[in-house]
Amino acid sequence: MGRWIIPDKLNMVGSVTVYRSEYKSSAESKFIPSAWDNRFIMNLSAVYDIAKNWSIGAKVSAIGGAPYTPYDVEETAVGATIVKKEYERMLQEDARDVIISSCCHSVNLLIQKYFPDALEYLADVVSPMQAHCLDLKKRYPNCKTVFIGPCVAKKDEAEYYEGIVDAVLTFEELTNWLKAEGIEIEQEMDACPESRARFFPTTGGILKTMAKDAPGYAYMAIDGVENCIAALRDIEQGKIHKCFIEMSACVGSCVGGPVMEKYHRSPVQDYMAVAGFAGERDFEVAQPQAMSLKKNFTYIEHKLAMPSENEIMTVLRQMGKFKPADELNCGSCGYNSCREKAIAIIQGKAEISMCLPFLKDKAESFSDTIVKNTPNGLIVLNENLEVQQINTAARKIMNIRSESDVLGEGVVRILDPTVFINVKNTGRSIRDERVYLAEYKKYVEQTVVYDQESRMLVGIMRDVTDEEAARVKKEKISRQTLEAADQVVEKQMRVVQEIASLLGETTAETMITLTKLKESIDDE
Ligand code: SF4
Ligand code: SF4
């Protein structure tokens, strides 16, 4: 700092501050400059005295530039190449039965949380994103790594496995950021024959890059959560052996990833876009030791809160279990008891409809309701033509007071059995046949069906007595109208004939008179 003074005239002060601002990310790492490591600040101020006790002044400052942050961009296909080489090594050297690829963090979590028995088959290898960041940190000590891709799950992976990937951005976030900054990127094709691993984000892409020459192994690719779950169930049940399975949670793999969804054109076009960009050979990579690529996958316990007794009882009641005797504990839903099942429903792990007895009861009570309330008469007979079921509408047609009056009785007691015998013997149903039940003075339209499986005859009767009476009445009115019309026409004809005969007589008489008159005039 310095100062220069001319008394009663000028007062100048100048200062220079020199500093360094650096930090270490760990005790072992080197110091690196912070974002405000400008190194110096220079200030110069001057005050000049003018008349009448006034002074004017000025100040100038200068500050060093912010430190330059070197950056570079590389594609994760480099990490993918490292990962696929490790998969190939495992298949050749480790005596493993099933190997599930571990590139998709969502699949890894699925196995860690819900399929712990399949954990031993999950390849204990870092993902391409991690392999690439580890490789970058080795090549550029102290560098920070940012992964940019189509997957939101990668944010969780980066957080879960600290110190490998420093930040994750989705393509969408990057696009929005560039837009906000008004930056447009020129697209250009980066053709490179050593880029086979660019196939990785497509279904089967990992397999496409692999040698697939491990003796006795089958290779397959599965995408979509449902397919992955089905395959994991098979693996847990020991149904799959000697197999390398590429699993992706998204249909179409990462090109069908959640962030890509709204930009989707079509799965085929998506694949073609990637395929046209991939080369035929592997990237040149310095393959790290297998140990440094190891990733430990452990069971992630997800404890769910235990519901209260009240909540359990409420769900049990919804399941039709009102008393302990209703709890059949049959196990057909996969739970040891109805109570366990009710707890699973509350915890969101099961559906109420997964209880077979419940469904059966519900279906039965539903069909009972239909049978009871249908306006059609319904009667069910066994092969001996004995009444097994009869509904209210049928009883009304046949004036039967109560069901118990006829249940188990031969149908002959209430109906002519001929039609039932015919249908049973021929196996041919009768549909909508109109018959008169003389003993009940009722017309019905009857359908009789024989159910071979249950060996039951079902008779459906629609009471059409009113309809029939209306038809007969209408017929009678029509007939009477026709008769009346006939009578009127006949009468009219008679009158016409009479008029005609009268007219004929008069005309003849007139003609005779006129002829006579004409003859007498001629004679004169
Ligand atoms: S398949 Fe889907 S969830 Fe899995 S890594 Fe790719 S984008 Fe992410
Ligand atoms: S299927 Fe239904 S009745 Fe059987 S144990 Fe499960 S909940 Fe209980």
What is the CA-atom radius of gyration, in angstroms? 49 Å
pLDDT < 50 stretches: none
- Tell the overall outline: elongated
Helix content: 25-40%
| Bound chemical compounds | iron/sulfur cluster
Strand order of the largest sheet: 13-12-16-15-14
Question: How many angstroms does the end-to-end distance come to?
Answer: 176 Å
By secondary-structure content and strand pairing, the structural class works out as alpha+beta
Tally the helices: 14
Residues in β-strands, percent: 15-25%
Q: Tell me about the biggest sheet? A: 5 strands, antiparallel
* Number of strand elements: 16
Tell me, rounded to a whole number, the average pLDDT. Answer: 88
Count of all domains: 5
Order of helices and strands: EEEEEEHEHHEHEHHEHEHHHHEEHHEEEH
Characterise this structure.
The protein folds into 5 domains: 2-63, no CATH class; 77-293, no CATH class; 311-362, 3-methyladenine DNA Glycosylase II, Chain A, domain 3; 374-463, 2-Layer Sandwich (Beta-Lactamase), CATH 3.30.450.20; 469-505. The protein is built from 14 helices and 16 strands. It has helices at residues 77-93, 105-114, 128-139, 153-160, 171-180, 205-209, 225-236, 267-275, 309-318, 338-346, 356-373, 392-397, 418-426, 465-523; strands at 2-6, 10-18, 22-23, 32-33, 40-49, 55-63, 98-100, 146-149, 167-170, 218-223, 243-248, 377-381, 387-390, 430-437, 442-451, 456-463. The strands form 5 sheets. It has a 5-stranded antiparallel β-sheet with strand order 13-12-16-15-14, sandwiched between helices. A 4-stranded antiparallel β-sheet has the order 1-2-5-6, with no helix packed on it. Helix 1 (77-93) crosses helix 3 and helix 9 (309-318) crosses helix 10. The radius of gyration is 49 Å and the shape is elongated. The termini are far apart. The relative contact order is 0.06. Bound molecules: iron/sulfur cluster (SF4) (2 copies). Residues 328-333, 335, 337-338, 341, 355-358 line the site of one iron/sulfur cluster. One iron/sulfur cluster is lined by residues 328-333, 335, 337-338, 341, 355-358.
